[in-house]
Write a structure and sequence with these properties.
5 helices; mainly alpha
């Protein structure tokens, strides 16, 4: 599952206005949600920096990187597993690395696989 965060800027006064109870309610909601949005943005930034620094992608991140659905990723991973020759394996998809239940793909190998697909 991919989560995307978008920054929403509201031009609402943070001081409740006696003439407008709705403005005060909106200001309270904005104040309550700000820490949640900040934490989510910080977590997303950390996930992106880890993937960029380590060069390892989860199956979802690899799918986004090569612009492929999860079903297509699974189909190509299976084709690689049942391929008889190295050439067929290379044509099917980039190699994967499993640690327990975690599946990871190296960015450099995804790039190499994409280059082979373009030729």
């Amino acid at each position: 599952m991919t989560h995307t965060c978008q920054v929403v800027k509201l031009s609402v006064s943070t001081k409740p206005d006696a003439a407008s109870p709705i403005n005060g309610l909106v200001a309270e909601i904005v104040r309550a949600l700000q820490p949640i949005f900040r934490a989510e943005l910080r977590a997303e930034r950390d996930r992106q920096s880890f993937a960029a620094a380590s060069g390892l992608f989860t199956i979802e991140e690899a799918g986004e990187y090569v612009r492929m659905s999860r079903a297509d990723m699974s189909r190509r991973r299976h084709a690689r597993k049942v391929a008889k020759t190295d050439a067929a394996k290379d044509a099917a998809f980039a190699p994967e690395y499993c640690t327990g239940r975690n599946i990871r793909f190296k960015r450099a190998e995804l790039d190499a696989w994409l280059d082979r697909q373009r030729q």
